Amino acid sequence: MGELHLVEKFGEGGINVMLTSVGRRAYLVNYFKEAIGERGTVIATNSHPDATGMLAADVACVVPRANEECFIESLLDICSRYHVKLLMSLHDWEAPFIAARIDSFKEVGTFPIVSDPHVQEICLDKWATFDFVRQMGWSTPESFLSLVAAKEALGKELIQFPVILKPRRGQGSIGITVAYNLEELEAEYKLLLLKVTRMESNGIMCDAESLIIQQYVSGIDYDLEVVNDLHGRYVSVLAKKKLASRAGECELAETVEEQRLTDLGREIGSKTGHLGVLDVDVIERDGILYILEFNPRFGGCYPFSHMAGANLPAAYVAWAIGMQPDPLWLRVRPGVRSIKDIMIVVDQRH
């Protein structure tokens, strides 16, 4: 069953999809527009009207930021007005607010593909991620919540320089820095601690222990999109080898198909029970797969999967209307190398 056959199955009602905090993800807007064809509408929301994702959407709505008053009410109003059937959040910081009001969305006929607050906390709190990964028996870099604990581990040679410092609830590589000796560690820790107090967040930034210090691990970078269905059941994993990145976002990647990555993705999807896509950063060193981070949304690597034959937007639309997606939409052709480019978009509204 291909994309064109999918839109023929919608029936009279069609389906409207809303992508929140769409930002520059115009490609996702276009993927969903292709999936639903003429039988639905793609609505995009953002706190800034000039995001390119807003320009690509059928309907664009400016909403407050997630930590501002009336954010949820604004989304609910849009969902009710446009009869939105499926909502996908594309921003880490707003997802917890949507998850906390998921029943309100269902009351207006909208199904948010947003995991419950417990899963959100595991993903968005890097210390909770570390703790969860260790409890599951998977590998992850040794981590510490205080400078004292990190220095003690260094003194006992439990870890070695370099170490990486990052905000405990950061996003998009914001604030991440590397220290190569004790003097740098102390200076970077003090500076980052000051910066974190000025960082915008979803209102749940930790006041204490707001930084995390980790053993720096280098090796082969992988991105796993762990795909669960709308009931939180594991379906598949889409794996890429990241070959080049800029500012925390992958720019060059190649799809891979390896059993050990599939096995790890299956375990993660089964243990978290998340809804939708869970973007997982993994590094292989000396044959060991280290889990670095969980992102409970479409990640920046998804276009590489789409170029290699996957079609998760079509799959989620199919599930939303009670159909089974084409199995080809849930896998990638291995060995497909893709590169991100910059595209200039003319604002036709002016």
SSE order and pairing:
Elements lengths: L2 H6 L8 E4 L5 H11 L5 E5 L5 H5 L2 E4 L8 H11 L4 E4 L5 H6 L1 H6 L3 E2 L4 H8 L1 H10 L7 E2 L2 H9 L7 E5 L9 E3 L2 H15 L14 E5 L4 E9 L5 E13 L2 E8 L2 H14 L4 E9 L2 E8 L6 H6 L4 H9 L16 E3 L11
Report what the structure shows:
This protein has three domains: 3-114, Rossmann fold (3-Layer(aba) Sandwich); 142-215, ATP-grasp fold, A domain (Dna Ligase, domain 1, 2-Layer Sandwich); 219-339, D-amino Acid Aminotransferase, Chain A, domain 1, CATH 3.30.470.20. With 350 residues, the chain is of the alpha/beta class. It has 13 helices and 15 strands. The protein is globular. Helices cover 33% and strands 24% of the residues.
Shape: globular
Strand content: 15-25%
Number of helices: 13
What spatial order of strands do you see in the largest sheet? 14-13-10-11-12-15
Helix content: 25-40%
Mean pLDDT: 91
CATH architecture of the largest domain: 2-Layer Sandwich
Order of helices and strands: HEHEHEHEHHEHHEHEEHEEEEHEEHHE
Rg computed from alpha carbons, rounded to a whole number of angstroms: 20 Å
Query: CATH-wise, what's the superfamily of the largest domain?
Result: ATP-grasp fold, B domain
Write down the CATH topology of the largest domain.
D-amino Acid Aminotransferase, Chain A, domain 1
Residue windows where pLDDT falls under 50 for at least 5 positions: 1-12
